[in-house]
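Q: Got a minute? One more chain.
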Amino acid sequence: MIFMANSALARVYEHTDGNKLTLLEDPAASADYKMELIRNAKHHINILTFFWDNSTIPERMAVELSKANARGVEVRILTTFIPTLGTDITGAGRKELKAGSDATFAYVSLTPGSHFSFTHNLHEKIFLVDGEKAIIGGRNISDSSLSGKDMEVQLEGPVVNQVQDHYKKMFDFVTGLKIKSNCKREETMDECVGAYSKTIFSHNDKKYFPDQKIYEDGVDARIISHEALIHQYEKGMNKAQRLLQEDDILDTVIKFDFKKLRAYNYFVLPTARWRNFLEKNLAAGNSIDMITNSLESAKFSSNWGYIYSIPDVIDLIKKGLNVYQWQRNQKLNYVHEKVLIFDDEHVIIGSHNFGTGSTGVSDEIVVEIKSKAIAARLTEVFDKEIADPAITKKATLESMDAEENQYARMIRYIRTKALSSFLFEIY
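A: Always. Here it is, folded:
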């Protein structure tokens, strides 16, 4: 029995009303809150994270998850293959299915580097408890989340079932890949498949998809996801096809009308569709302010991605984009936030970087929100950040030209065909 997601299922979900949304702005407080949610969980915990490393936060969380599982709470962790929970760097200690009690404990990782690309990523960040509260945003299960400028939002109400639906789809898909690759010996086939299949959960079970509470004066919200893994598995895309593939997040957002856009962007490495969207609106006189990493802040994450982006930044500044670069002389060393604020009500929060990597090789999820209160809070923070030179500095053509000249040889080198393909899939 092979569990494969059906790519015909909706990825741009319907708008739902009556949702309660809470911004989780402080990274340490968010980590502590997740521990509290685990301690109070009654039935199941579903986690999807790009990586789960061996730092303090995941170690604390592993302890709490083990305790929850011991009292009968089902635990499912879905992640990309990176040294992690109970795993040494060679992978020799990896245990994908772990039972701490009679309740399900599943740790399932996607192995990247297959299907004609350098890497494949489960890049979504989902933390979902009892089918009632879901957290999505940009933070991974790692201490690195404490030093990056990022944002998460807790969802309560009908939109939570949409998050669970996407989680189940990707859990089924990756589990199906595991069955196909690992359950090959006829004499152990039934036992192997059974070990995986017992972790699957049902849409028909109200414990996973409950009737959600409708909040009076709640907000309009829906989930949009990009399922790059399913697309590539089915079609075996090359690089050019990956960058042009269907991306429901990108393809939905570029249809938005606005007068003022405030955006956080990890690196400015736009696909052709995102670039055209920015250029079209700038040419129409619409205002776009973007906070992104500087050369200094990028050294905390990857200065190669930043240096690669310099020509793109220069080109877009010439076309009218206002670029504000994050400064590293503060507690939050770099920008990892993925938030778009359109005018005074329309907001996107999630994992999508609106760059070539997110469209080309990464599964992503965002929540589309219509809320004046949330937009106002995010706008307040954004405007303070671009007004404070200790936090951001506006990039000028003069400063960017100087960086381009300083790194001219490296830019030429990393934009060669081989390295360009690799970097496009990372960032």
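A: Residues 1-10, 83-99 have pLDDT under 50 and may be disordered.
Q: Perfect, thanks.
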